[in-house]
């Protein structure tokens, strides 16, 4: 919601642009992990030139430990370059970082699409794919950090649109996989069409970003000075809080954050030991307040990434070969996870339970560790070291439902509660 004298977002073009940009930031990761069966097929030598989408391959492909490597080489650069981005913004212009990252991701995905048609032995194909995964996720980290910096000057509703686009990226990738599999064309053509799809999505993101300077609403906010932005943000928050009250949305994350922000302007001064110089908050004091919530968030991500997709992508249907067996992994692993994860995130718009002082939150987070052995004991063929205790498909589907909803809800919940932990006597410890 904009201030009265601010220009209007005509036809919601700026909101749509940030939604598409959010979609584009997570498309690379989701398209790679959803296509794990394709990469396994190539590494196993299936059809020499193209693996089969949606069909798990075991045996020779296991010698590359593809699932483990793709998880490591995607998350490690995300961490490193997210930290590095804190220094890059001082020496590299924002436009260069965003456009450069988008163009680099587009070229790397175009290379992945071209390799579908190239006859290559498993070894070089594995090396090129892992290098692509590393660089794509490095550029994604820079891209996300830069876009979040821009969103800091926009009304908070645009951050919500951006995050919604990110949340739908996984669903989009799973649907693209199912469409390619159901197209009825040969494996090579369907794989080519699958990898061309994110290229189109990233190209659309580039067009959306280039259009922002030509939109008056975007120019008004993105060109504002920090002090103007702060005053605008407070006014915007007051209007959003009134809107939440009119719509009777109890304890929404937005309402909690907005109330605390507005209260911060009215509360008495802090104790001497809590006084911080403007713009230079003590990270140590902030960490003292949020360490438990931050640890819960780390554990949520750690459990999720330890099994998804490295273990869950190996689970197959216990039914006889057929259509259901072919579509089992794309539907029950990737599509189901992304839909239920989005549902879990959405639940925090209606209630926040348990609160930041409850011991139940760390308990619920720790209980998610049980998903690791549960998924490992599901139906994974040609495995000799572990027994299959849950062979039926219903077990895996039930585990995935609970796993995905808990991931989305607990991740969103901890991110909503962290600002409340920083609140001391009605004031923020950080600006």
TrEMBL record:
Q: Which InterPro entries match?
A: ENT1/ENT2, Eqnu_transpt
Q: What is its main location?
A: membrane
**Which domain of life does the UniProt lineage start with?**
Eukaryota
Q: Where in the cell is it found?
A: Basolateral cell membrane
Which spans are transmembrane here? 12-33, 69-89, 96-116, 128-149, 161-185, 191-212, 290-315, 327-348, 360-382, 394-418
For this protein, the record's Pfam families field holds: Nucleoside_tran
Q: Would I find Metal-binding among this entry's keywords?
A: no
Keyword list, A-Z: Membrane, Transmembrane, Transmembrane helix, Transport
- Membrane topology designation: Multi-pass membrane protein
**Family designation:** Belongs to the SLC29A/ENT transporter (TC 2.A.57) family.
Which protein are we looking at? Equilibrative nucleoside transporter 2 isoform X2
Q: Which gene encodes it?
A: SLC29A2
């Amino acid at each position: 919601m904009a201030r009265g004298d601010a220009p209007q977002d005509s036809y919601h073009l700026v909101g749509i642009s940030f939604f598409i940009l959010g979609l584009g930031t997570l498309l690379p990761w989701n398209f790679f992990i959803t296509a794990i069966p394709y990469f396994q097929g190539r590494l196993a030598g299936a059809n020499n030139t193209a693996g089969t989408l949606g069909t798990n391959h075991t045996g020779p492909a296991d010698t590359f430990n593809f699932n483990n490597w793709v998880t490591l080489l995607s998350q490690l650069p995300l961490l490193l370059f997210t930290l590095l981005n804190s220094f890059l913004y001082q020496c590299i212009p924002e436009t260069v970082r965003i456009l450069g990252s988008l163009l680099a991701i587009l070229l790397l995905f175009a290379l992945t699409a071209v390799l579908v048609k190239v006859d290559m032995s498993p070894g070089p194909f594995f090396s090129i794919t892992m290098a692509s995964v590393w660089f794509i996720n490095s550029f994604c980290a820079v891209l996300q950090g830069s876009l979040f910096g821009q969103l800091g000057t926009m009304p908070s509703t645009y951050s919500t649109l951006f995050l919604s686009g990110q949340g739908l990226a996984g669903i989009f990738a799973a649907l693209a996989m199912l469409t390619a599999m159901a197209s009825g064309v040969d494996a090579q053509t369907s794989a080519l069409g699958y990898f061309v799809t994110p290229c189109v999505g990233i190209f659309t993101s580039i067009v959306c970003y280039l259009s922002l300077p030509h939109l008056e609403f975007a120019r008004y906010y993105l060109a504002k000075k920090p002090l103007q932005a702060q005053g605008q943000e407070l006014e915007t928050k007051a209007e959003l809080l009134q809107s939440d009250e009119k719509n009777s949305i109890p304890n929404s994350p937005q309402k909690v954050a907005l109330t605390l922000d507005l209260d911060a302007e009215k509360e008495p001064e802090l104790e001497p030991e809590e006084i911080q110089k403007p713009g230079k908050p003590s990270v140590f004091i902030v960490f003292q307040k949020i360490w438990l919530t931050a640890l819960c968030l780390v554990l949520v991500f750690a459990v999720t990434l330890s099994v998804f997709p490295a273990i869950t992508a190996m689970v197959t249907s216990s039914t006889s070969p057929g259509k259901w067996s072919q579509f089992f992994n794309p539907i029950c692993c990737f599509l189901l996870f992304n839909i239920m994860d989005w549902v879990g995130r959405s639940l925090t718009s209606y209630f926040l339970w348990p609160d930041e002082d409850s011991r139940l939150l760390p308990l619920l987070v720790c209980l998610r560790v049980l998903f690791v052995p549960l998924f490992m004991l599901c139906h994974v063929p040609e495995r000799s070291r572990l027994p299959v205790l849950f062979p039926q498909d219903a077990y895996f589907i039930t585990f995935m439902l609970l796993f995905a909803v808990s991931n989305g809800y607990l991740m969103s919940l901890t991110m909503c509660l962290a600002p409340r932990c920083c609140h001391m006597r009605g004031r923020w410890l950080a600006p």
